[in-house]
Write a structure and sequence with these properties.
2 copies of one chain form a homodimer. Chain A is built from 7 helices and 12 strands. The longest helix of chain A has 27 residues. Helices cover 37% and strands 21% of the residues of chain A. In chain A, a hairpin with a 5-residue loop joins strand 5 and strand 6. Chain A folds into 2 domains: 125 residues, Sandwich (Jelly Rolls); 81 residues, Winged helix-like DNA-binding domain superfamily/Winged helix DNA-binding domain (Arc Repressor Mutant, subunit A, Orthogonal Bundle). Chain A has 247 residues and is α+β, with helices and mostly antiparallel strands. Chains A and B meet through strand 6, helix 2 and helix 3 of A and strand 6, helix 2 and helix 3 of B. Chain B binds a DNA duplex (30 and 30 nucleotides) through helix 6.
DNA sequence: GGAGGGCAATGTAGTAAGACATAGCCGCGA
DNA sequence: TCGCGGCTATGTCTTACTACATTGCCCTCC
């Protein structure tokens, strides 16, 4: 399932070509490339990190979709966030001997793997990269805040509208939206677990939103028919599009 | 309401005396002290940051309680987290021109104020402090994750149990628990807004937990009668007690 | 071609939680 | 001493959401 891939040189990183990420100096990119231990490719539904793991590694999702979650001891699961290319994984690990959450892929994915014991070197020799890592962490927190607002205070309909528009915008920025829509690899159980809803209620609410003509979903391709109405429904406020760091 | 206080030298910071925080070198403490622009004291219910603010400042809560929240345009409010002494405020601001959330005090509080344009200097000249800031950010995210798990997947009873034990443990670590219990400056509306519940339902659930003998709350003093039962109810997992950074 | 698994759709019934209204308590200030 | 505002308490009614059960569709695998 998991296997090593030939290591793509960071200088030719396909993500950097999208324009969504901020530039780095040659020295910084060399450092990242040197720190990058290997690259792995995994299938859909693979576990990258398990809850309670003590693996000391950091990852950058290079391609594919994944999600971060945690389960209660009786099996109830909450998805914290969905991960898209460029997202950084594993920092929480610094806080505890074990990983507080799990990470699982939704599609075939490739990931860059970094040993976490090089992290301190990174801060010491390239403070700008250290700053970038803080940025990425703060950004992740911002998204979780937003999800908490959804789950805590939005209705089921609003939550789904919010999730759709939010994922759509994030993917759009990475150039993942194609003419026939966005390939959305979530099933209804994922949506339910991300939004704190039951599977059945998610299904019914999705149908209602669909019947209202707000979106179409054919063969896993999502199209927002009326993004403005969707955004209004969700009380969505878009952050300005600025290049973001990439490690 | 807000007024400047005489600046406490960081070396004699009362928080450092609690033992809950990790040590810093003299040079680091000098840098922090130099970066600290001023100190402010505010009353209970003061707004430190408003949603949408464009103030470019960072804060450390030196004493008192506060909370971080956001409101939807129709007024529904979600509290993301409660802030205790030592918590760092304002980093999200780096991501956008405006502050995505508000911060309000629950008690009289004092805060250290740092200009955010010194932040880059901090990373450059004291990488270990940069690392600490990442740590604090990741830690905040961890707590929000936990809250999202509560609001998304725990029952009302479990949510309240979780909130109580979580706040209790955090406060305990800072030496804020006194023989007659912990001074808890939240009202039921705060609890409701943090847990995604209505005020009425919060009230009834509190009463039930109280009747079950799990806690007592007299004159704002919280005591956990049976912390183990509370923890079991909440499926609570405590992070190991390690010293944490302080800026 | 049939069995089986993963997923969406739908009906029914039950319940946890919300909405609304009201009342009591307490501290505070005029 | 009275009224007022902030907070907790409680009752009743409603509903959004969950739990459970079933059906149907589309794959894939033998």
């Amino acid at each position: 399932m998991t296997h090593m891939s030939p290591k793509i040189p960071c200088k030719q990183c396909p993500l950097r070509a999208t324009g969504a990420f901020s530039a780095n100096t040659d020295s910084e990119i060399e450092f990242i490339e040197h720190m990058k231990k290997r690259e792995i490719s995994v299938g859909a539904g693979s576990s990258i990190l398990r809850e309670g793991d003590d693996r000391k590694e950091l990852f950058t999702l290079l391609s594919g979709w994944a999600f971060r979650y945690r389960t209660l001891s009786d099996g109830r699961r909450q998805i914290f966030n969905f991960l898209l290319p460029g997202d950084f994984i594993g920092l929480q690990h610094q806080l505890d001997a074990r990983h507080p959450h799990g990470v699982e892929t939704l599609t075939e994915s490739t990931l860059c793997v970094f040993p976490s014991d090089r992290l301190w070197d990174l801060y010491r020799t390239h403070p700008a990269l250290g700053f970038d890592i803080t940025w990425l962490t703060a950004n992740e927190e911002l998204i979780v805040d937003e999800n908490l607002l959804s789950v805590g205070r939005r209705s089921a309909t609003e939550r789904i509208a919010m999730l759709m528009i939010h994922l759509y915008k994030r993917a759009e920025r990475l150039g993942m939206v194609e003419p026939d829509g966005l390939r959305l690899p979530l099933n209804q159980q994922h949506i339910a677990d991300a939004l704190g809803l039951s599977l059945v209620h998610t299904n019914k609410t999705l149908k209602r939103l669909n019947a209202a003509g707000l979106y179409t979903l054919k063969d896993g391709r999502l199209k927002l028919v009326n993004p403005a109405a969707m955004a209004r429904l969700a009380d969505y406020y878009a952050l300005p599009l600025r290049p973001r760091p990439l490690i």
